[in-house]
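agent> Task received from the user: take the single chain below, predict its 3D structure, and emit structure tokens. No templates, no multimer pairing.
agent> Plan: (1) validate residues, (2) run structure prediction, (3) serialize to tokens, (4) report one or two observations.
agent> Step 1 OK, no nonstandard residues flagged.
tool_call: predict_structure(input=
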Amino acid sequence: MTATTQPLPTRTVKTHLPAGAGSSKPRPLATALGLFSLGLGLTEALAPGTMARATGVRSPGLLRAYGLREMLSGLGILTNERPAFWLWSRVGGDVIDLATLAAAYADARPADRTKILTATAAVLGVTALDALCAAEHSCTHS
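)
tool_result: status=success, residues=142
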């Protein structure tokens, strides 16, 4: 008796959230990332001191500029049918954020180092989502 072989299931990057209540269409992960960008950007731009205390990055002016960058990326994602460019802009922003966190860590007070490490972990997590979503949109939505 010979064994039959079954094809392995193909795995793709999940770029959609489940359909929400009252919605028949799935909401794309890109939309969630765009909304996240708007929220984060507004917080950075309007409350840079709060973000400085939360992250340990003591540069309110720089955080305000990063907030404007986030809002621009978010608007680009939310207003374009093919948001790959804007998703990649989030990845580039994440790289800048990680470099900023690394520089801040080098000069940080001991009390800020834990905040900086926590912020770094959060940025690394969202960077993975950003890169996966950007790559998926670049491959299938270009």
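agent> Step 4: summary for the user.
The helical segments are 29-46, 48-55, 60-79, 84-106, 110-140.
agent> Done.
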